[in-house]
Design brief:
Helix content: 25-40%
Mean pLDDT: 85
Structural class: alpha+beta
Radius of gyration: 24 Å
Number of helices: 15
Order of helices and strands: HHHHHHEEEEHHEHHEEEEEHEEEEHHHH
Distance between the termini: 35 Å
Strand content: 15-25%
Length: about 450
């Protein structure tokens, strides 16, 4: 059973009340930041360390100016702004160092790589990639930016692996030329849909072999895109488990396909199927496939119980002409029902002989990317940037990910110094809440909290 690696402000406050523990925290951070030192010159190194400490600090707002004022005073505001916007350091070596450390910290033979996007509400019209578009955080269309992220989860924890700002297609038009220049957008940055960005990230991560992944996960925005699923370059022993919507159709048995002779005219291009596909929504309500009550794991308040169906069937694919469909490969249809009657629909290309409990486990591994967003937005200032340029957005996201990895290390330190069974009642409740958010219970109910205290690293 894997416990979440979310840094918990209540447990951390109790831990840091001891001077020796606080010193260990400071020493741990200094040691951690040394890994990134070769990527910076000396002045840049000092600014980088200030930014990470600021993201981990108890500041209510974690943008450049509050961080500079908190640590160094008013005269340091401008230099820190220039560190983000003009410094010559390269993000790629920093990202590679981060990924290496993340892989060493949480790598697991049975891990999952998952993709999702998250939005950042903006008031103006001059920030890179901003437009009125669907904002998942608010559940409606709003003026915002949207980033696509790749995360990894395994038995040792979870963290973000890659990121890219989604640039709407209209930003490629001539009317946006001046704005693109002011936002420092790379000239060779071609338009890509969110699904194309996610596919590239996944295939690059899978090809690198840096993260051991038995599973690839995604939500319905990606899972009901058959082109996306079919283009995944999955190594042997790696399978997808993708959320889809209630309109998804599958063949419960493989249909016979015949080409009757045409009495006149041209011969048929498409076969006649012996039977059509079934809606996954109908299968969910079909008593011929009963719900099973299973225990997904042990939580802080006892076993986590869920209702699910796992049915072996065949995928349904469009035949690229009108409304014709054809059967695809054999898949698992995995359904999970919640207490309020809502059903989640998932499909997987895992082999027929896989143990069903492996599908249960994989279904819980998909939610940590949401937990990453909650932690980074709620505790580490992920959405606090005040910039318009493409470069600064990328650097801010990278630094938030670096700060988040340190909170994962803190979780490990907390486990060794103050085991979860021995924390006080308030902390135990918080850990239990995190476990539920992690996906073993109401994974649908994740919400981004109001700003909570950060780690005071001064």
């Amino acid at each position: 059973m894997m416990y979440p690696t979310m840094f918990d402000p209540i447990a951390l406050e109790t831990w840091c009340s001891d001077k020796e523990d606080d010193i260990q925290l400071q020493t741990g951070l200094e040691s951690y930041l040394q890994h990134y030192s070769p990527c910076f010159s000396y002045p840049q190194k000092k600014a980088f360390q200030t930014v990470i400490r600021g993201l981990l600090s108890p500041l209510e707002r974690k943008s450049i100016e509050p961080i500079a004022l908190y640590f160094s005073g008013e005269e340091y505001v401008r230099p820190l702004q220039q560190f983000f916007s003009r410094s010559s350091f390269k993000e790629q070596p920093i990202l590679e160092t981060y990924r290496k450390l993340l892989s060493e910290q949480i790598g697991s033979p049975r891990g999952m790589l998952s993709v999702d996007d998250t939005s950042f509400v903006k008031k103006g019209k001059h920030s890179v990639g901003v437009k009125r578009q669907y904002c998942g955080r608010l559940g409606k269309t709003e003026n915002c930016q949207c980033g696509v992220f790749l995360a990894y989860a395994g038995d040792k924890g979870y963290g973000l692996v890659d990121y890219q700002l989604y640039i709407p297609q209209e930003w490629s038009s001539e009317s946006y030329a001046d704005l693109r220049e002011r936002c420092q957008m790379p000239e060779d940055l071609a338009f890509g849909t969110k699904n194309e960005i996610a596919l590239r990230m996944l295939n690059q991560a899978l090809g690198s072999g840096q993260f051991q992944a038995q599973w690839v996960g995604c939500d319905a925005a990606y899972g009901n895109d058959h082109t996306f699923l079919d283009a995944l370059m999955l190594p042997e022993g790696t399978w997808y488990l993708a959320v889809t919507n209630s309109k998804e159709r599958v063949f419960l048995t493989y249909p016979e396909m015949t080409f009757p002779e045409a009495r006149r005219g041209r011969p048929r291009k498409h076969p006649i199927l012996s039977h059509g596909p079934s809606s996954v929504q109908d299968i969910a309500s079909d008593p011929a496939y009963p719900w099973e009550t299973v225990i997904l794991g042990e939580g802080a308040k006892g076993p986590i119980i869920a209702e699910r169906k796992a049915i072996r069937c065949f995928s349904c694919r469009k035949d690229l002409n009108r409304n014709y469909v054809r059967p695809g490969g054999a898949i698992w249809l995995y359904l999970r029902r919640y207490a309020d009657g809502e059903v989640k629909y998932l499909v997987s290309n895992a082999p027929s002989d896989i143990a069903i409990w492996e599908l249960d486990r994989a279904a819980t591994l998909r939610w940590p990317i949401e937990q990453c967003f909650e932690e980074c937005k709620g505790n580490l200032g992920m959405g606090h940037y005040e910039c318009r340029s493409y470069r600064v957005w990328n650097r801010h996201m990278l630094f938030v990910m670096i700060a988040h990895l340190f909170t994962i290390q803190i979780r490990e330190m907390l486990k060794k110094i103050n085991p979860i069974d021995n924390v006080d009642g308030r902390a135990a409740d918080a850990w239990d809440h995190n476990l539920c958010c992690y996906g073993y219970e109401e994974d649908r109910a994740l919400s981004y909290p109001q700003e909570s205290p950060g780690i005071s690293v001064t």
